């Protein structure tokens, strides 16, 4: 990337794509209403698609800014953003607008990190560079049940010369509600190609049956280039992955953070009851994760508890089976828990997880299926 005070070798063009200049044509901005803010926004009806940018030639998307009139879960999970590169028929990036822009659980958050921001919890900003060689198309699909007013601004540079090492931006959203016991939640399902895993925006809604003990012992694992049963990269715990430890409070850093906790005081409610939901992120910018053949990234769904808490869980939920960490065949018995109530161990859990993965790859499209239907995206959200 050029230094701030240097010009590019070739004549790169700067463009702002918005409803005031839909194509970015030179000298064609702000013509509506005699140049007096005549076309700042549009209404997007339920079921309609709004093309944000349709660019030809080479270039790079530098910044995306969007704001919408409705910002509840129906809108932030019902509006889907899609990105297509170089004439591909399938999107390289697809996800609910809220989750893609690093918000969480259908809520709008006030935050800023290295890739996304929302200064007053009313907007969607992304500054991840997204290069293309032949064309770029960005669009919003309104899969909610209501009309939504949309403002947007896509800032890009055109007529750039990209070399053979250029990678395309990709993103994918998924949810498991609930997860399956002892089956790791796939942050990024296995894909083939060469590239770099950029990071993820994760969310968890705590299973009410298990809300009296810690949920975040799961390790993040990255399977690289033919890894089979065991991965090459393996972390040590959920809060460890985002740079904290011994719990997970509210914080926002450039490359890691826990920017959403659904609790009255923004922290654990008390020593035995934990918050209802969490939203957290990690970006591998200072610590690149490269792959050359394939990659899969997962997070274990595991918790930690004193035996006394597991007894309480059994009392509240007659018939529940609590699986020990291990080979998947062993479960806790009341007798062993009563014998050592002050003992603590990690164990398997099942919760409601969402994940938005971000990565660069050498192909303009990936083999992942269309994201879940809007009914599944908004299920159980306020």
What does this structure look like?
The chain folds into two domains: 13-167, Sandwich (Jelly Rolls), CATH 2.60.120.1390; 172-354, Jelly Rolls, CATH 2.60.120. The chain is built from seven helices and 25 strands. It is mainly beta and 382 residues long. It starts with 12 loop residues before the first strand and ends with a helix. It is globular and about 80 Å long. It has helices spanning 32-35, 73-78, 97-100, 238-241, 307-316, 334-339, 374-378, and strands at residues 13-17, 42-44, 49-56, 59-68, 79-85, 93-96, 111-112, 116-118, 124-126, 130-132, 135-142, 148-158, 168-176, 185-192, 195-205, 220-224, 233-234, 251-252, 256-261, 277-283, 289-291, 294-299, 302-306, 344-348, 352-361. The strands form four sheets. Strands 3, 5, 6, 11, 13, 15, 18, 19, 20, 21 and 25 form an eleven-stranded mixed beta sheet that branches. 10% of the residues lie in helices and 38% in strands. The longest helix is centred in the C-terminal third of the chain and has 10 residues, at 307-316.
What would you say about this model in short?
This protein is mainly beta. Helix content is 10%, strand content 38%. The protein has two domains: 155 residues, Jelly Rolls; 183 residues, Jelly Rolls (Sandwich).
**What class do helices, strands and sheet pairing give?**
mainly beta
Considering DSSP H and I runs of 4 or more, what fraction of the residues is helical? 10-25%
Q: How many separate domains make up the residues?
A: 2
CATH topology of the largest domain: Jelly Rolls
Mean pLDDT: 96
* Overall 3D shape: globular
Number of helices: 7
CATH class of the largest domain: Mainly Beta
Proportion of residues in β-strands: 35-45%
The CATH architecture of the largest domain would be Sandwich
């Amino acid at each position: 990337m050029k230094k701030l005070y240097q010009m590019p070798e070739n004549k790169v063009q700067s463009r702002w794509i918005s409803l005031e200049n839909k194509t970015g044509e030179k000298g064609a901005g702000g013509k509506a209403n005699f140049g007096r803010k005549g076309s700042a926004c549009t209404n997007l009806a339920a079921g309609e698609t709004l093309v944000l940018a349709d660019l030809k030639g080479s270039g790079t998307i530098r910044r995306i800014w969007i704001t919408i009139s409705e910002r509840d879960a129906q809108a932030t999970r019902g509006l889907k953003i899609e990105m297509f590169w170089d004439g591909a028929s399938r999107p390289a990036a697809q996800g609910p607008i809220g989750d893609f822009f690093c918000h969480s659980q259908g809520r709008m958050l006030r935050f800023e990190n290295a890739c996304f921001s929302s200064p007053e919890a009313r907007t969607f900003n992304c500054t991840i560079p997204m290069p293309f060689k032949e064309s770029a198309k960005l669009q919003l699909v309104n899969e909610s049940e209501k009309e939504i007013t949309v403002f947007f601004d896509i800032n890009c540079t055109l007529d750039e010369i990209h070399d053979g090492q250029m990678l395309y931006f990709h993103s994918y959203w998924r949810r498991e509600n609930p997860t399956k016991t002892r089956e790791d939640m796939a942050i990024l399902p296995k894909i083939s190609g060469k590239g770099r895993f950029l990071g993820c925006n994760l969310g968890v809604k705590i299973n009410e049956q298990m809300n009296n003990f810690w949920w975040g012992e799961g390790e993040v694992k990255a399977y690289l280039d033919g890894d089979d049963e065991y991965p090459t990269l393996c972390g040590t715990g959920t809060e460890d992955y985002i740079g904290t430890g011994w719990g997970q409070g509210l914080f926002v850093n450039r490359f890691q953070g826990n920017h959403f906790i659904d609790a009255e005081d923004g922290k654990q409610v008390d020593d035995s009851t934990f918050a209802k939901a969490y939203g957290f992120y990690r970006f591998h910018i200072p610590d690149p994760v490269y792959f050359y053949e394939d990659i899969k990234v997962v997070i274990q769904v595991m918790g930690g508890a004193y035996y006394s808490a597991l007894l309480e869980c059994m009392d509240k939920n007659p018939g529940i089976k609590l699986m020990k960490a291990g080979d998947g065949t062993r479960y806790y018995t009341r007798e062993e828990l009563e014998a050592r109530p002050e003992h603590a161990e990690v164990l398997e859990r099942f919760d409601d997880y969402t994940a938005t993965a971000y990565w660069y790859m050498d192909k303009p499209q990936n083999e992942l299926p269309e994201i879940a239907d809007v009914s599944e995206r908004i299920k159980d959200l306020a």
